[in-house]
């Protein structure tokens, strides 16, 4: 009887395993069929922008037809430069200078047939989606309890009074930090900017953070009283009633444009990617301007809530080569504080 039971159980197990394998095979085949139609969107955008793009795609007939890969700017930019058209993504949103550098090096993108007039000239293979802006922000409760003076400039952040009470982003991993560096170099020149950066890095110490959203999180959590980072995050915290205030520095609010582009994969270029790009541009800008108020397209309002006091762009064209030059200045300043 025991042997019969064992044989019976063995037969049942084999049958069950066969059913599972057949089901898995069918599932994999289904996934394989669907994979060719699924658009892979790689983005460095903030969570607010990603949610808006998802909503726009879902409400315009593309629900379930895409996946989003959220990556840091440096990571996504590095992959794009290294892989070119071999990158997994079909649609990319990224800082425009990375897109330009990849196109020049690898001829990565297809021309977009998007009928929307931009306020500034952009190549036909990219369409701007938003402009990130930098500012100083403070935890008002900590400022009061530590009796700290309110900074009015980025230069002020080098004052020793803020030592141990400052958070900034790392320029080697986040382009948010580049906004700070651009402001200093444009206003004071490279030599003086490097001196100011030494003081800033000394004050920030171990609060030089890898993510552009790191400084606002540190200030929000009360780990430090002052940060420099993405202006819209501090605006949102302030509006939500948190003890966060934002300060537009006297050097100006420098900006970086992020844009979308469709990867040219020849005969394997996903036709849905360009359709999604068009829908994002046509239907997301109004909501995006609530967070990123800079007007990018003709006809958009330039008089919106929480517009930066003094929006500026660096006078020299932003390129990957210029970023590397500015990174070298920052790295020298950082090493001088060790």
What does this structure look like?
By secondary structure, the protein is an alpha/beta fold. It has helices spanning 2-35, 47-62, 73-83, 96-106, 140-145, 176-204, 214-220, 231-239, 271-291, 320-336, and strands spanning 39-43, 66-70, 91-95, 127-139, 166-169, 208-209, 226-230, 244-247, 253-262, 311-312. Strands 1, 2, 3, 4, 5, 6, 7, 8, 9 and 10 form a ten-stranded mixed β-sheet that branches. β5 (166-169), α6 and β6 form a beta-alpha-beta unit. α6 runs parallel beside α10. The longest helix has 34 residues, at 2-35. The protein is globular and about 60 Å long.
From the structure above, extract its key features.
single chain, 338 residues, alpha/beta, ten-stranded mixed beta sheet, disordered N terminus, 10 helices
User: What is the overall number of helices?
Assistant: 10
Work out the strand percent.
15-25%
- For the record, give the distance between the C-alpha atoms at the N and C termini, rounded to a whole number: 79 Å
Q: Quick one: how many beta strands? A: 10
Structural class: alpha/beta
- Which ranges are low-confidence, i.e. pLDDT below 50, for 5 or more consecutive residues? 1-35
User: Percent range for helical residues?
Assistant: 40-55%
Taking the sheet with the most strands, its summary is: 10 strands, mixed
């Amino acid at each position: 009887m025991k042997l019969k039971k064992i044989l019976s159980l063995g037969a049942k197990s084999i049958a069950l395993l066969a059913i599972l394998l057949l089901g898995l095979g069918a599932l994999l085949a289904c996934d394989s069929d669907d994979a060719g139609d699924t658009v892979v969107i790689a983005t460095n955008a903030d969570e607010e922008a990603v949610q808006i793009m998802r909503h726009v795609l879902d409400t315009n007939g593309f629900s379930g037809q895409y996946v989003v890969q959220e990556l840091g700017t440096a990571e996504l930019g590095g992959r794009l430069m290294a892989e070119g058209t071999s990158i997994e993504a079909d649609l990319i949103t990224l800082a425009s200078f990375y897109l330009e550098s990849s196109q020049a090096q690898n001829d990565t993108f297809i021309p977009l047939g998007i009928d929307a007039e931009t306020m500034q000239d952009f190549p036909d293979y990219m369409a701007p989606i938003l402009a990130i802006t930098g500012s100083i922000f403070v935890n008002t409760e900590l400022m009061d309890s530590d009796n700290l003076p309110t900074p009015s400039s980025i230069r002020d952040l080098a004052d020793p009074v803020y030592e141990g009470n400052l958070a900034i982003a790392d320029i080697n991993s986040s382009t948010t930090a580049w906004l700070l560096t651009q402001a200093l170099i444009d206003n004071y020149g490279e030599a003086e900017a490097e001196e100011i950066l030494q003081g800033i890095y000394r004050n920030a110490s171990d609060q030089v953070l890898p993510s552009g959203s790191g400084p606002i999180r540190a200030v929000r959590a009360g780990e430090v009283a002052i940060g420099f980072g993405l202006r819209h995050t501090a605006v949102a915290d302030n509006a939500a009633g948190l003890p966060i205030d934002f300060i537009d520095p006297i050097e100006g609010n420098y900006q970086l444009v992020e844009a979308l582009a469709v990867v040219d994969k020849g005969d394997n270029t996903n036709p849905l990617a360009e359709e999604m790009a068009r829908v994002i541009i046509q239907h997301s800008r109004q909501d995006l301007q609530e967070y990123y108020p800079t007007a990018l397209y003709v006809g958009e309002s330039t008089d919106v809530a929480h517009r930066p006091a003094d929006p500026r762009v660096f006078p020299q064209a932003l390129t990957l080569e210029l970023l590397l030059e500015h990174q070298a200045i920052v790295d020298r300043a950082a090493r001088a504080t060790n």
